[in-house]
Amino acid sequence: MKTVKLDITKEHCPMTFVKTKLELEKLSRGDILEVILKEGEPLENVPKTVTEQGNKVIEIKNLRDDIHVVTIEKG
Amino acid sequence: MTEKKKISIVLFSGDFDKAVAAFTIASGAAAVNYEVNLFFTFWGLNVIKKYKNRNAIGRGFLARTFNFLMGGFSHLPLSRLNFAGASPKLMTNLMRKRNVATLKELIEASILLKVNFYACEMSINILGLKKEDFIPEIKEILGVAKFLNIAEKGEILFI
Fold first, then answer.
1. Burial bucket for residue B60 (CB in 10 Å: 0-12, 13-18, 19+)
2. Contact call for residues B17 and B102 (beta carbons, < 8 A)
3. Lower Cβ count inside 10 Å, N or C end of chain B?
């Protein structure tokens, strides 16, 4: 099991969830991906789309101001 | 398991901005697990030509002239305010500055996300081109009947 970090705070639609998906594809089942993202579109869509694709959102934590960390377990 | 959702996009236009729209939807949809088919026809073929610059490819004098004048990826015009080709370059710089994916990045993402690329048999024939004149990601050259087959039970967009 490994943990990988992905910072998409500078990205915009569609690259926010495109990069998340591409990073998840590199991982194996059970691996953890920590996505650092901004409020708004990314925070609304990333957890939703990864869940729809059979992964599990373990935690959403506020890092500072409008920056959040979404911890995803690859399904 | 439910059937995968599907979207098929016809890219008729060879305009830079419309290609950005097509590839934004394509990569975005593929990232949320849609089956995505991109069907390139007429001017849209310029986006996926192997040679990115002007090149007199094709069969016959007229076709060669046409292909030379149209050029490839590096010559896609902006649909408005093109300013003799300066605007697409300025726009790409602006996109980079604002951290928005450029057309090149969107195409690369679409390829990585396994979007299916198809090219139109009839318009390729008019331009005297062949499969080898396009990027290798083109899966197949096909006609309307086959495209409708592939697009069946999904949504279709014409850009």
1. exposed
2. no
3. N
Quote the pTM value: 0.93
Q: Does B156 touch chain A (CB under 8 A)?
A: no
Tokens of B16: 């830079």
Q: What is the CATH number of the domain that holds A46?
A: 3.30.110.40
Q: B98 and A11 in contact (C-beta within 8 Å)?
A: no
Write out pLDDT tens, residues B118-130.
999 999 999 999 9
Half-sphere exposure of residue B39: CA atoms within 13 angstroms, side-chain side = 22
**Are the beta carbons of B28 and A21 separated by less than 8 Å?**
no
Number of domains composing chain A: 1
Within 24-83 of B, beta carbons closer than 8 Å to A belong to 24, 27-28, 30-33
Q: What is the pLDDT at residue B105?
A: 96
Q: Which amino acid is at A44?
A: E
What CATH fold (topology level) applies to the domain B6-158? Hypothetical Protein Ychn; Chain: A, (3.40.1260)
Looking at residue A16, its amino acid is T
CB B95 within 8 A of CB B101: yes
A14/B113 Cβ within 8 A: no
Domain of residue A31, residue span: 3-73
Structure tokens at A2: 């490994």
Residues A3-26 pLDDT 10s: 999 999 999 999 999 999 999 999
Q: Does the structure show a pLDDT above 60 at B1?
A: no
Spatial separation of the C-alpha atoms in residues B144 and B40, rounded to whole Å: 11
- pLDDT reported for residue B3: 77
Q: Please report where in the chains the tokens 């996505």 appear, as a residue.
A: A35
